[in-house]
Amino acid sequence: DVLSLCQRRRHLGKVNDVMRHFLSDNERFADLFNGIFFHGQQVILAGDLSEASEQYTEHEMSSQLDVGRRSMRIRDIKKHLKTGSFLRILAVENQNLVDYSMPFRCLQYDVMEYGQQLALLRKENEKAGSYLSMAEKFCKIKKTDKLTPVYTLCLYHGEEKWDGPRTLGEMMDFGESEDKMASLFADYPMKLYCINESDDFTVFHSEIKALFQAMNYRADKTGMRKLLQEDLSYRHLSEDTVETLAVMLNIPGIWKNRERYMQKNAEKEEYNMCLAIQEWKREEREEGKEEGREEGIRAFIE
Questions:
Q1: How far apart are CA 106 and CA 156, in angstroms?
Q2: Across 8-29, average pLDDT
Q3: Is the torsion defined by CA of 57, 50, 202, 231 positive or negative?
């Protein structure tokens, strides 16, 4: 119904917001890319990252007036990676639902990024007016001009299996029997990471590991309890990790009652999820007793 749909949309919005906040931390952002792109090797350093989130402006055509209009698009997370004199752009798109247009969306973001860089180069070149050839003057781009490479990662953290396309080519209709033209198609392979497709998170070295592990037990409460009780890393979590866990696992009580699980360790506040699970089990037992009493009363009346 309409109410449940609105509640679901609010929850999805909260999921995206809390995941964006969690991964915006430079240490975690670097750990995410190192784990997925480099199998855990420490290639990207948190100290080399800086915030670069911004809006992109794209032109669309109005279907009614047939005139150009502008729309704004915002990356979920975008950072600059500067190592020495080299600059890279790293971006993450969070997805909690399967999006069958995702390869195109990621490509569109990358194209807008490169278009923005080209527009800036042209503006600077026009101001300087120091073209070396007619070709440079025509396109307003110098032969020596270079663009900053963009690396976009789509992070899927939904519960359903990703059954959508993973490349732009998978969105294409090449006919029933692919001919020679299909092999000539300029494909765009989207970099997709599905949390629910992995059972080994040892490539991560931050609290991303604890979060992703727990998320894979969303449909298995018994397994989740066992994990949070037996894995020692869940006894020393930061506050924002606890908030992210509460939202992603859809257990608001963990966040609401977080002060009960807080413990100070060397002037640092940490949260013990083992205590949270013990309380969760106790509450479920009390709920079970109450349901049992209600069933007894109902049976007596009948």
A1: 13
A2: 87
A3: negative
Question: Residues, the chain, total?
Answer: 302
Global confidence as pTM: 0.82
The amino acid that residue 13 corresponds to is: G
> Which amino acid is present at 171?
M
Residue 66, token pair as written in the block: 């047939």
| Residue 264 to residue 270: CA distance in whole angstroms | 6
pLDDT band at 302 (very low <50, low <70, confident <90, very high): confident
CA distances from residue 19 to 51, 71, 280 in whole angstroms, order as listed: 16, 25, 24
Amino acid 8: pLDDT: 64
3-state secondary structure 171-219: HCCCCCCCCCCHHHCCCCECEEEEHHHCCCCCCCCCCHHHHHHHHCCCC
